[in-house]
Structure formats: C-alpha cells, structure tokens
TrEMBL record:
Pfam families assigned to the protein according to its UniProt record, in alphabetical order: DsrC
Source taxon at top rank: Bacteria
Family to which the UniProt record says this protein belongs: Belongs to the DsrC/TusE family.
Subcellular localization, as worded in the UniProt entry: Cytoplasm
Protein name: TusE/DsrC/DsvC family sulfur relay protein
PANTHER family the UniProt entry points to: SULFURTRANSFERASE TUSE
Record's keyword terms, sorted: Cytoplasm
InterPro entries for the chain: DsrC-like_C, DsrC-like_dom_sf, DsrC-like_N, DsrC/TusE
Keyword set includes Chaperone: no
Amino acid sequence: MAIEMPERDAEGYLIEPGDWNEDVAQVLAESENIQLTDDHWDAIRFMREFYEEHQIAADARYVIKHLAERVGRDAQKKLFELFPYGYVKQACKIAGMKRPRAWSTG
C-alpha cells in the first residue's frame, strides 16, 4: 500500500512537520538512499521528541550528545556515518523538519 506523502518544498523537506510519521520517514530515507537502522531511528526519534518539546529542530550538537549516551565519544563520527550527506540535508529531512533557514547544509 502506497503512503500519501505530505506536501514538501522544492528541496524535499516537509512543509508541515506535524504531517510526519514513521512511514513518511521510510519514504524520505529511501529518497536519500538510506536504509534506516536502529541507530537512525534512535536519532530520528530524539529529534522528533525535541521538536515536540521545543517546536524547533534540534541542533546537531544535541543529537550528538544524545548519541554519545549509546556510542560514546565517537558520537559525532556516528552521526555523519548515519547521515553522510549532512545533518541538515538528511537527518532533518528524514525526521520531518522544515529546512532550517539559518544553518549550513553540513
């Protein structure tokens, strides 16, 4: 069964983060050639919880700090292994965030 994709901007980010769900994340990940693992889901779910609480996308340093609880000091390296084309380009997109305006694509 095909899922109905929410409206996205020209770069593929969701227009409305509230339209996100895990099925949408799977489709977005496939479009980035990423097979979601437990580590991906850990980062994505943390990002969603942060968004729900603060109504903004989590800065990468918060996600790195969260990952460090599981993977230790290599958390920054791990984040870029999970999302090799960058935190904003891939992690934010897959987690259903709007394109962060003030950030670089790194």
